């Protein structure tokens, strides 16, 4: 068997089957049987199965409806008229799967586990301006009498050659089919195996969804977190219903207002900042409400506990923000300018960043930009060169003074740079804030919750305290509260 050996020092940590061996193992399983439908990048996946041997027992049909009229005649016309979409992919795997059931008798093939694999892809354009992207998926059975499972993912190509992109797609397809059948009981590992014989410089996976009886307990938001954690993508997003959404689809040509924070937990200060900054943002020229998206962003570094990702903690934060009707983004971005650059991939419309005074002071700290050849000037060029503005929420200092853009202190070397952006209207104060909540800090609320101290509930938006108590989030323990109250009454 051909394998790729992974080493850690002198120690062998994994032996990865070759793509040929993976395809052959599928082919030699007499019960796996299905169709391949590939649009836009050749028939690269099924090619591996044809070449590995024994394919007649696996491949019921291989097709590629390249012509748009033929594709529409087979799968129907999409409402938006596009072809490289999730809805097109779902039509493909559903229709092809139904055709297998219709054309093959279960009485004659009682042990067959049917599958339909499909991809619909646009490779790099001739001018090499758009690197290409696509949807890849499989609908399949683990048992002949069991309902179908689905794994659907969205990819972005990073290579700048169409032929290389085709080859990458073929390898990914084999990894997906192999993982679907032989790694389905461990979706996190299945996700990592998608990159067998591939490099993250070749391919980005920015959305994935599992469904069906074998994945009934899989939380797709946690799977999305794995994409960011494993470096497969820079950011993932969830809608207010907590569902995975494709960033490109929701950010495209939108005016974007972003709020970064730990939101551990989300407080009244966070929501006041959101409401007041949004009001100001919508008053900006060319910003229309129907074309504006607010994004609450949590950086991956803020999800770490003792050096590791605390997935439960992530779930708590995301669920609370979604319960407030917000769109959430989890990213790998440490610096603000990278957030702006990311959004700029999808929109040229106006952007806004809402933040507190401490965050703005950090932005003007040179130590965060030592890895850039141009230092802080390069970072600020990327941050402010687009139509972007900072909406600054005031802070109450230890002396009880209110700090705004007018009296905040940055490093002496940064004073003139700060004055430049302030003078040019890139930093504006949120004046219509609620002064009664300036003393609310997430870290203090979190400590009160975990220590069982009373009085934290009024510091949070309506309904959030009830969710925290109901699900015992952030270390909330009603017994601690009871003991604390007893101790207070004895004093």
TrEMBL record:
Gene3D superfamilies cross-referenced by the UniProt entry: HUPs
The organism's place on the tree of life at top rank: Bacteria
Protein name: Nicotinamide mononucleotide adenylyltransferase
Origin species: Flavobacterium frigoris
């Amino acid at each position: 068997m051909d394998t790729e050996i992974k080493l850690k020092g002198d120690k062998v940590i994994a032996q990865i089957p070759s793509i040929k061996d993976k395809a052959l193992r599928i082919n030699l399983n007499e019960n796996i049987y299905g169709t391949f439908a590939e649009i836009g990048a050749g028939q690269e996946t099924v090619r591996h199965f044809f070449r590995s041997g024994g394919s007649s027992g696996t491949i019921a049909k291989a097709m590629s409806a390249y012509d748009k009229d033929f594709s529409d005649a087979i799968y129907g016309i999409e409402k938006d008229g596009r072809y490289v979409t999730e809805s097109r992919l779902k039509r493909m795997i559903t229709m092809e799967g139904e055709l297998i059931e219709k054309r093959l008798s279960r009485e004659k093939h009682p042990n067959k586990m049917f599958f339909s694999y499909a991809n619909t892809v646009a490779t790099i354009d001739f001018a090499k301006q758009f690197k290409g992207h696509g949807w890849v998926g499989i609908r399949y059975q683990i048992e002949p009498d069991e309902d179908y499972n689905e794994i659907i993912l969205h990819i972005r190509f990073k290579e700048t050659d169409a032929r290389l992109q085709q080859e990458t797609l073929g390898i990914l397809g084999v990894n997906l089919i192999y993982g679907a059948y032989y790694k389905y009981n461990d979706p996190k590992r299945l996700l990592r195996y998608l990159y067998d014989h591939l490099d993250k410089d070749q391919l980005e996976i920015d959305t994935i969804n599992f469904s069906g009886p074998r994945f009934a307990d899989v939380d797709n938001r946690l799977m999305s977190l794995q994409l960011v954690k494993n470096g497969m993508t820079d950011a993932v997003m969830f809608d207010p219903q907590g569902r995975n959404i494709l960033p490109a689809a929701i950010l495209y040509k939108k005016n974007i207002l972003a709020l970064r924070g730990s939101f551990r937990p989300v407080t009244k200060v966070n929501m006041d900042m959101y409401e007041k900054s949004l009001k100001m943002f919508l008053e900006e020229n060319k910003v229309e409400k129907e074309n504006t998206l607010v994004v609450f962003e949590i950086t991956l570094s803020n999800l770490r506990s003792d050096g590791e990702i605390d997935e439960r903690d992530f779930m708590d934060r995301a669920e609370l923000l979604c319960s407030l009707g917000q769109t959430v983004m989890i990213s790998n971005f440490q610096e603000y300018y990278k957030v702006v650059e990311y959004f700029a991939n999808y929109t040229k419309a106006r952007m806004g960043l809402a933040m507190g005074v401490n965050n703005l002071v950090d932005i003007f700290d040179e130590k965060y930009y030592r890895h850039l050849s141009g230092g802080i000037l390069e970072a600020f060029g990327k941050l402010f060169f687009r139509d972007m503005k900072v909406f600054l929420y005031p802070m109450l200092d230890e002396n009880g003074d209110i700090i705004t853009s007018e009296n905040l202190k940055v490093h002496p070397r940064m004073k003139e740079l700060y004055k430049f952006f302030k003078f040019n209207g890139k930093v504006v104060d949120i004046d219509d804030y609620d002064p009664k909540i300036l003393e609310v800090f997430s870290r203090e609320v979190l400590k009160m919750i975990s220590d069982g101290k009373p009085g934290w509930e009024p510091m949070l938006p309506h309904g959030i305290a009830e969710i925290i108590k109901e699900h015992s989030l952030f270390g909330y323990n009603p017994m601690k509260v009871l003991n604390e109250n007893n101790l207070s009454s004895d004093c």
